[in-house]
Amino acid sequence: MSNGNFYPLGNAAAGSRFEVYPEALRAATDDVYAARETVVKFGIDDLSPMVLRDDDVGLLGVQSDVVTAFNDAIAGIRDKTGKGAVQLERFAQALDKAADYYETQDEEDFKQLRAKEEGVN
After folding, report:
1. How far is residue 29's CA from residue 54's CA, in Å, rounded to a whole number?
2. Residue 68 and residue 87: Cα distance in Å, rounded?
3. What pLDDT is attached to residue 77?
4. pTM of structure
5. Residue 83 contacts by C-beta under 8 Å, 6 or more apart in sequence?
6. Which of 71, 87, 96, 103 is 20 to 30 A distant from 51 in Cα terms?
């Protein structure tokens, strides 16, 4: 039976032993930006030349409307890659913001330790 308290990262009073390293967040941010660039490149460079024309499919292909279906499918994939790139951008920005926050926390902790050390000497 739960006591109603939920500590996803451990009980802070008991010491969660959970640490965040801003430099690791920065490295992850770089990786997410790189993934975003790969997705953008795929959508622009790889999918742009993929266009089907009536000449490419012959009479039966034209009659079955395969050209429109293919081109619509490619357009849908390009749309999804664009939306995916936007989501990756937002994720990278959030990671960067988290790194900023934890760097600020580390600086504050360092200042407090320095102040205590100077007070002891």
Report:
1. 44
2. 28
3. 96
4. 0.69
5. none
6. 87
